[in-house]
Amino acid sequence: MWGDSCPLLYYLEEIMADNSILQLFGFELKKVSKASAGEEDKKAPSIVPKTDDDGAGYVTASGSHFGQYIDMEGAAAKDNVALIQKYRGIAEHPEVDAAIEDIINEAVVSSELEASVSINLDQVDAPDRIKKTITEEFENIYSLLNFEEHGHDMFRSWYVDGRIYHHVVVNESNLKAGIKDIRPIDATKIRKVKEVEYKKDPKTGAKIVDKTNEFFIYQEKAGMNQGIKLTPDSISYVTSGLTDSSKKRVVSYLQKAIKPVNQLRMMEDSLVIYRMSRAPERRIFYIDVGNMPKGKAEQHIKDIMSRYRNKVVYDANSGEIKDDRKHMSMLEDFWLPRREGGRGTEISTLPGGENLGQIDDILYFQKKLYRSLNVPLNRLEQEAQFSLGRSTEINRDEVKFQKFIDRLRKKFSHLFLGILKKQLLLKGICTEQDWNSWKNEIQVDFIRDNHFAELKDSELLRERLGTMDQVTQYVGEYFSREWVMKNVMMMDDKDIEEMKKQVEAENAKSDDAEDDDYGI
User: Fold this and answer.
1) Residue 223 near residue 129, CB atoms below 8 Å
2) Phi, psi at residue 210, to the nearest 5°?
3) In Å, what is the CA distance from 196 to each residue of 43, 50, 70, 213?
4) Are 263 and 95 in contact, with CB atoms under 8 Å apart?
5) Which member of 54, 313, 404, 423 lies 3.0 to 4.6 Å from 324 by CB, making a disulfide possible if both were Cys?
6) Are 239 and 84 in contact (CB under 8 A)?
7) Per-residue pLDDT reduced to its tens digit, 302-360
8) Cβ atoms within 10 A of the Cβ of 277, count?
């Protein structure tokens, strides 16, 4: 597609001379042929718009143009804002915050020696000079995002909110200069909308989808009736990929933790109330009232209560302890009258509640909360030590947790790929067709800090080397070297060719060094 003999500038001039259309932020670099133009007309009609996992709300367009957006009900924006605020409130719970930190610390690893995220273009079928340019542009985007400093916060915001927005700023008078700035947008102030236009099928009379337009609505304050309409090219939008049961609204990874968090809070509050009311021991005063009438007996007890009762109160603001007789306490003593003929005045003690130290129910809901967040239960125990043994000794929860982290990284990497696509198209480094052919081959690599991954790789290599030692004696008689490299060392043709070149280069270098030693 890109010839080394054809300069990039000449290639672009050839495209523009062929009546191509350049559109991105209102311009797109794309070569339009008659065949591709006819493909749009050949698409099968449908009565429903295309569904995506971006949770965009659908708006039915009444005409062929759209002038101003007015949300008369405000239901969709209000629901999204309330949902995001609920997620953020849940994230403030101590157990949830600890689980989120475990997830983010595994997903985004900081290092002083290398960048936290890099791009891998080994599988991309493009010249080396194009790969080098793409790598440089990726590093430029990494710098514009200031990911080295704010990467942890970005990933946390995306994980908690279930979506993350960035405004891509360019110079409209000089689009070829590329992206100048990337600014984050609060997820509660913006949402994606799809405008669907329908037409009537002349044969069946059914209403089918004619065209779908996508745009973003920005509202500075929630509840505003009007918003600013933004084009999709100017916004970077990445979701969690999770939607609710109706497939119409994006949800966060904290969605399934809402119920366990509420249950845990309720259990903790009820435990505190129960212990406050049952922990102290109460005194029971039996006052001898003799043959006094009821009124005088009650007055006699009140006189004794006011004479002997001493209520000590602790002031948390000043740290002082003082005598306070004006306020009633929920932990009152009991004063009971006793008639003549019984025993005299007596003071006894009512014991406090038993088994107040058991918190098994609290631990149950904590474990339930960690399960809902896919965090291994052994991480709940802060005193638990991590074993640095063989990978076969790693429990199943850690294996599942690492796979979960890999899925999160895969979803979050669309942040870099989406902005990288805009940058490459703006600067004319590639076309839309080039990107569509490369996007599945471009890999975004995150630094790994999970010890299980290192143990697994080292043990796999150890086992393969052990198998190769046993097979080596049969090489040349029953097995070929190429068969061993493919089936024992699990190398593909490209790896085998590269390995042969490296071995030959090292052998040649070693022979030259020996010749120098002998003065040849």
Assistant:
1) no
2) -95, -45
3) 16, 10, 16, 6
4) no
5) 313
6) no
7) 877 776 565 666 676 776 766 655 444 445 566 667 766 666 666 676 666 666 667 78
8) 12
CA angle 42, 45, 49 (to 5 degrees): 125
pLDDT at 52: 61
Two tokens, residue 463 = 């086992």
**CA quadruple 68, 72, 75, 77: dihedral sign:** positive
- DSSP letter assigned to residue 380: G
3-class secondary structure, 159: helix
Alpha carbon distances (Å) from 263 to 268, 366, 373: 9, 10, 15
- Rounded distance between C-alpha atoms, residue 423 and residue 440, angstroms: 18
Question: pLDDT by residue (tens digit) across 420-466?
Answer: 999 999 998 988 899 999 988 999 998 876 555 666 677 778 888 88
Q: Considering Cα of 393, then 396, then 398, then 402, what sign does the dihedral take?
A: positive
Q: Residue 503 corresponds to which tokens in the numbers above? A: 């071995």
Report yes or no: 311 and 323 within 8 Å, Cβ to Cβ: yes
Alpha-helical runs (H) found in 67-127: 75-91, 94-107
**Beta bridge partners of residue 165, listed in sequence order:** 185, 237
Residue with tokens 């043990």: 459
CA distance 191 to 298: 69
C-beta of residue 444 within 8 angstroms of C-beta of residue 117: yes
Q: Name residue 193's amino acid.
A: V
Question: Which residues does 179 contact at the CB level (< 8 Å), separation at least 6?
Answer: 140, 141, 144, 168, 169, 170, 419, 422, 423, 426
Single out the residue of 199, 253, 231, 209 nearest to residue 51, CA to CA. 209
Q: Are strands 334-339 and 282-290 parallel, antiparallel or unpaired?
A: parallel
Cβ proximity of 402 and 396 under 8 Å: no
Whole-angstrom Cα distance, residue 463 to residue 458?
9
- In this structure, the strands spanning 163-170 and 190-200 are unpaired
Tokens of 282: 């109460």
Closest CA to 155 of 417, 404, 413, 450: 413
Q: Look up residue 319 and give its two tokens.
A: 């740290």
Residues paired with 212 in a beta bridge: 196
| CA–CA distance, 235 with 422 (Å, rounded to integer) | 10
pTM of the full structure: 0.67
- CA–CA dist 102, 156 (Å, integer): 11
Over residues 289-307, the mean pLDDT reads: 79
> Contact at 8 Å (CB) between 58 and 198?
no
- Facing residues of 239 across strands? 163
d(Cα 145, Cα 166) in Å, to the nearest integer? 9
- Is-contact 266 252, C-beta < 8 A? no
Which backbone phi and psi does 28 adopt, to 5 degrees? -145, 125
